[in-house]
Design goal:
alpha/beta; globular; single chain; 172 residues
């Protein structure tokens, strides 16, 4: 399977709003442009996105507007799934520290429970193995490299794009 993983900050994946700051709007416009160009140039058979199932995201909107329609799937673990997997408490108590130059932002620490979530993402993505064409995946920046490495180890062709998240806000 051929997979494109796009690294995102979750706040840019939602459709544009009149309340967006200039910087947030610019990031959303960049995501929309990247996805629009990619969909025009590639046969995309499915889009998977780490988002809430109720969110109206740019990727979801573009998938529904495509002709033919591109299946879009939310790949976030529900609260019940996190509890069943034994990772709910750890994810809700993730260690963080303040950003060194902006005290209003935090840097999140990766924890072992992230691997459980990433395996969940991969299992969801692999459901598209039987379809032709490329698969596009949008993940929070913290998950892109681990998911890409695991998928490559399984023999899939994976490209990861990081330009929409110029500053890493997580650490190992």
């Amino acid at each position: 399977m051929t997979i494109l993983i796009i690294s995102i900050a979750h706040y840019i994946q939602l459709t544009e709003s009149q309340y967006d700051s200039i910087n947030r709007r610019a990031s959303k416009v960049a995501l929309r442009a990247l996805l629009t160009a990619h969909l025009a140039q590639h046969e995309v058979s499915a889009i998977f996105e780490e988002s809430l199932p109720t969110d109206t995201t740019i990727a979801r909107q573009l998938a529904s507007q495509a002709n033919p329609h591109i299946p879009w799937t939310c790949i976030i673990m529900s609260e019940a799934e996190r509890k069943a997997a034994g990772i709910f408490h750890a994810l809700n108590n993730r260690p963080t520290r303040f950003h060194p130059t902006n005290p209003n932002e935090e840097i999140e620490k990766r924890i072992p429970e992230d691997d459980v979530r990433e395996d969940f993402f991969i299992n969801e993505i692999l459901m598209a193995q039987e379809v032709g064409g490329e698969v596009v995946v949008l993940l929070g920046d913290m998950h892109v490299i681990p998911v890409a490495e695991k998928l490559r180890a399984m023999g899939h062709t994976v490209t990861a794009r990081h330009e929409l998240v110029p500053e890493k806000r997580w650490e190992n």
